[in-house]
Amino acid sequence: xxxxxxxxxxxxxxxxxxxxxxxxxxxxxxxxxxxxxxxxxxxxxxxxxxxxxxxxxxxxxxxxxxxxxxxxxxxxxxxxxxxxxxxxxxxxxxxxxxxxxxxxxxxxxxxxxxxxxxxxxxxxxxxxxxxxxxxxxxxxxxxxxxxxxxxxxxxxxxxxxxxxxxxxxxxxxxxxxxxxxxxxxxxxxxxxxxxxxxxxxxxxxxxxxxxxxxxxxxxxxxxxxxxxxxxxxxxxx
Length: 237
Prior knowledge:
Blueprint: E1 3-7, E2 13-16, E3 20-24, E4 42-50, E5 55-61, E6 65-72, E7 74-79, E8 84-88, E9 91-96, E10 101-107, E11 114-121, E12 131-136, E13 146-152, E14 159-161, E15 166-172, E16 177-181, E17 187-195, E18 198-200, E19 203-205, E20 210-214, E21 218-223, E22 227-235
Parallel strand pairs: 13-14
Antiparallel strand pairs: 1-20, 2-3, 3-4, 4-11, 5-10, 6-9, 6-11, 7-8, 7-10, 9-12, 13-15, 15-22, 16-21, 17-20, 17-22, 18-19, 18-21
């Protein structure tokens, strides 16, 4: 039987540090909710707004797959693997932390706020060699379609991580409807509404709402307004 987990936007954890305004779908930092620790392999879904010139100094990660999706502005990134990049809205960054990395993340702008999603997944295997990926995705390629941006293992198109997970972005016009087929038997899908209103498998969702669906092979998606949607197809570990 299909199992549905609804996380309305206003029920998320919230922390306002002045320079950082963060919303946490799952337990993170000072926000702890035993009923919201993870959705399968999806461990962290943070919705951050970062003040001009501010950010996170050098800090470590290990044995985690980290995906950063800037929504507005750019992230100035520097890491112990030798990468020094700006990741802009329209691009996606992935890091396999594996045996361990250090990195820093700052708002690249001195005048405008940076808004981003940062997502962590448990890896399929531990202690892999750390790696970095970054790619641009055209918005016109996801108008009224679901554009795959992430998959398992090396591919020619898109980014990849050490997990049987697929991410897709959609820019859907009001009235558009489509079906999403779950990529791997046993996987669940966590849908996050970046903007607008959608209905998925009969559940109405609004801006920044999240919906986890397990024990199904297909998602029926209807755009109730112009909407942007992120789908995360992950193992239910």
